Predict the 3D structure of the following.
Amino acid sequence: QVQLVESGGGLVQAGGSLSLSCAASGRTFSRYAMGWFRQAPGKEREFVAAISWSGSSTYYVDSVKGRFTISRDNAKNTVFLQMNSLKPEDTAVYYCAARRAGSYSGSYYLDDYSYWGQGTQVTVSS
């Protein structure tokens, strides 16, 4: 079992930056590929970024490429999402997710993730 707790959300003006963190419980964090998803009001939850268990491979949805960076610190059981040049359309609840243990690669697909955090609100004003 993995428990995930996100932090770092908030209100920011367009063009600004925010850094999200996701702290994971458990001693085997390094065996889990991780992902970030988001859900805007009235919309389905969508993929944002993912990272392999070693951190050597990263994946992004096209709309955030060049603006967002996913990273992880396995010694601290934490995955990060650095968000720069934020736009109003980035406004959503952001969720951290973990694939099942032993899944090396990140995935674009929501159903490939077994564990979810409670989410953190990100609001970008125009």
Summary: The CA atoms of residues 50 and 104 lie 11 Å apart. The mean pLDDT is 95. The chain has no helices and eleven strands.
